[in-house]
Amino acid sequence: MATFVIVHGAWSGGWAWGDVARALRAAGHEAFTPTLSGLGERVHLASPAIDLDTHVLDVVNLLRYERLERVVLVGHSYGGMVISGVAERVPEWIDRLVYLDAFVPRDGESAEAIAGPGLAGAINEAARIHGDGWWVPFLGEPIDPERATVMPLGPLRSPITLRDAGARRLLRTFFQFTAKPPDDPQAPIFDAMAARVKAEDGWTYREVAFDHSPQFTRPREVAQLLLEVV
């Protein structure tokens, strides 16, 4: 039996991964889908004080209080920033890292830096106009408008520290989702992340013909992908 902890992306919540988690549990495994502070059902906690460290501690404390070990730690999109930070803090509790079309930061990088000046500029402008300078409305049309929430800007601006030797030795898998629309502004980000991991040792890399958010449209197939790495 494996223990999966799935970390959602920006403007989302653990609820988005419910169908994937149920499929993993039906296959005999444990699955947790924490919601990061200020998002999803924890949107009432949103504040300018939230940063990447807050989100990393959300997950570290889940592992600590649930006494989870040998975890398959999964991050989707922005969640790649979070799982990288968790691995830096508690590599001894993690069996492997799985990045689902996710950010793969280097030491000192922020999600904003990885996104590049175009998308980062749009995010900051949206925060300035609509979000009191510290939160960002969903850009575009959310899949579930009733449950999409704002995104605190602090976590996107926070640089990450990655220097732990134990974290660097963890098994790592990157799934690139290749069926995005040709005009998807996120596509170049994840193309760059894929190029990054293919150029480094220690990664397992796979391409899958999904759009960026298959947890909504193909949850059973996503669960099967995760089962194939354990």
The parts where pLDDT drops under 50 for at least 5 residues are none
DSSP summary, beta strand count: 8
CATH class descriptor name:
Alpha Beta
Might you state the CATH topology name? Rossmann fold
Following the backbone from N to C, one meets helices and strands in this order, namely: EHEHEHEHEEHHEHEHH
Number of helices: 9
* Class by SSE composition: alpha/beta
Shape: globular
Question: Strand order, biggest sheet?
Answer: 2-1-3-4-7-8
Number of domain modules: 1
The largest sheet is:
6 strands, parallel
Our Rg estimate from Cα atoms comes to: 16 Å
CATH architectural arrangement: 3-Layer(aba) Sandwich
| Annotated CATH homologous superfamily | Alpha/Beta hydrolase fold, catalytic domain
What do these coordinates show?
The chain is α/β, with parallel strands linked by helices and 230 residues long. It has a single domain, classed as 3-Layer(aba) Sandwich (Rossmann fold), CATH 3.40.50. The chain contains nine helices and eight strands. The strands form two sheets. Strands 2-1-3-4-7-8 form a six-stranded parallel β-sheet, with helices on both faces. It has a two-stranded antiparallel ribbon with strand order 5-6. Helix 1 packs across helix 9 and helix 2 crosses helix 3 (79-89). 42% of the residues are buried.
